[in-house]
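[Q] Does anyone have a clean structure-token version of this?
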Amino acid sequence: MTTELAKRRTAVFALFFIPGLTISSWVSRTPDVRDLVGASTAEMGLILFGLAAGSMVGVLFSGPLVALWGARPVIAAGTTAVAAGAGVIGIGAGAGSGFGVALGLALFGLGMGGGEVALNVEGAEVERLLGRSTMPAMHGFFSLGTVVGALGGMGLTAVEFPVLVHLAVVAAVVLCVLFFVIRRVPHGVGRGGGAPAPGNGAGPARGVLVPPDVGDRGGMAAPPRGGGGGGAEGRPRPGLRCAGPVRRPRSRGGRRPPPTGRWSRPRRGRGSP
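[A] Here you go.
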């Protein structure tokens, strides 16, 4: 593994860690946020709906955006939205505004839904370059972030630390980490959807018939007919092209068995073996 690839893998680990840190920091302060906005249980359900709505929008649009621009800008925009959402949640809670908290949760969900899809695209590419399974460890860093955020939130709740300051600090940490690691993510990953590499499904399999105008122009012609009804010995049958040689085993007595459906045209004529 090269140094550059190792740094790229570390960047993906960090980018998985910070959303987990942010979401658990918010969840651990939910009772304080509810008390600050004076919301009932039903009103908290409406406030939390902002998170679900933002997540759905992010997930629906992340695929086309990655195909258009690549994973890097979508990761950067999604992580920035996560940090901004945490800050808006803190501001809304400090102001006693349920609408402000719902808006922050919608922004947070938008960033999580869109950014995590793009981050998985980048993680899959890093795993392919490494040649070994790495995605479980990447998602493990998300879980590690939730543990760290939850422990921090529990401690700060116990000492009655202000929610606004807590979430503002978390947002600042997220932006700082993003600034230092996003440069390790190359441009263009996931964009378009180019043709697969040779040997990975780029061409027809050996022994499979393809039309004359499809596939490799240098492909082999169909084997010659063995008798009458189809031209002289050694002349290929017109209209057929084979991507590779197809051999049929000889039956007892040295005669070939009848065709088994490999060719698109049945044999004709009395001279067929």
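[Q] Thanks! Anything notable?
[A] Residues 194-234, 239-243 have pLDDT under 50 and may be disordered.
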